[in-house]
Design brief:
Layout lengths: L1 E3 L5 E2 L13 E3 L5 E8 H13 L5 E4 L4 H4 L5 E7 L3 H9 L2
Antiparallel strand pairs: 1-2, 1-3, 4-6, 5-6
Length: about 100
């Protein structure tokens, strides 16, 4: 699996579906931080709790944009995890 070093999105092949980058793609390694999903704040908080219950470390970060400053409705948040936890985290998401 490839990871975009610019936005941390995972993909099977380039260019990056999120930012269009094709120059900063590399094979994902176990310690790489990647984006598991992007969700509204309430759902991101719920998923964070579920991942932590499964002992999968994660961080929630606001996506860039004006909403970051004001936590505006419609603002999305990305849940970031280590690539080594990706498959287990996807299983947790599949159960929701």
């Amino acid at each position: 699996m490839l990871i975009c070093e610019k936005c941390r999105t995972l993909m099977q092949e380039g260019p990056c579906p999120r930012c269009g980058n094709s120059l900063r793609l590399k094979e994902a390694e176990k310690d790489d931080i990647c984006v598991l999903t992007r969700q509204p704040r309430i759902r991101a908080d719920l998923l964070e709790d579920l991942l932590k219950q499964e002992t999968i470390p994660c961080v929630i970060r606001a996506d860039q944009g004006l909403g970051v400053l004001a936590d505006m409705p419609g603002q999305t948040y990305r849940i970031e995890i280590r690539f080594s936890d990706y498959e287990r985290a996807m299983e947790v998401l599949g159960e929701v």
